[in-house]
Design brief:
alpha+beta, two-stranded antiparallel ribbon, 4-stranded antiparallel beta sheet, Inositol 2-dehydrogenase, 34% helix, oxidoreductase activity, oxidoreductase, GFO_IDH_MocA-like_dom, Dihydrodipicolinate Reductase, domain 2, single chain, 169 residues
Length: 169
């Protein structure tokens, strides 16, 4: 999502993580992750993720700038604010319920592409590939405990052949 909002790849990523759940640890995986990304435009972003959010599937985006901020909060069915306080519905409990409408729209768009009723894909192959390779850089940082230079990581990943049209469309 950050790549889409900022329209650029980060230049560095740093990740730290921990596993509290023994079952997840047995899989050599993490249940709590924190990622810091720095972008060419100067934006520094962080992503924190946990498999154990006791109040539901929390996913928010907050962007702060010199002229204000943008917030995309968890969708709610309703809320009430009055002089005695505020009440809100609980957030979605899991990603399948949180993104049900988005998954339906994604499938509809795919079918429209197959049928030929639309010819422009909303997602380019390069978006998918770059996001996947960026996840690999995040994993490398977590494994090594080091800040990863993303352009160098991409160069090493592709042995210098980063002119692939699929990566650069």
């Amino acid at each position: 999502m950050l790549r889409w909002i900022l329209e650029e790849d980060p230049v560095t990523v740093y990740t730290t993580a921990h596993t509290f759940d023994p079952e997840i640890k047995a899989l050599d995986d993490y249940d709590t992750v924190f990622v810091v990304l720095k972008f060419p435009c100067g934006v520094i972003a962080h992503i924190d993720a946990s498999r154990h959010c006791v109040f539901g599937y929390d996913q928010t985006v907050q962007i702060y700038g010199e002229k204000g901020n943008i917030i995309s909060d968890n969708p709610l069915k309703s809320g009430l604010i009055r002089n005695g306080g505020a009440e809100r519905d609980e957030i979605f409990y899991s990603f399948p319920t949180r993104y049900a409408a988005a998954y339906q729209e994604e499938l509809k768009h795919f079918v429209d592409l197959i049928k030929g009723t639309t010819s422009v894909s909303r997602v380019k192959p390069s978006d998918t590939l770059r996001a996947t390779y960026l996840c690999e850089a995040v994993e490398e940082s977590c494994r090594t405990g080091k800040v990863i230079n993303v352009p160098s990581f991409f160069q090493n990943l592709f042995k210098g052949k980063t002119d692939d049209p699929l990566l650069n469309e």
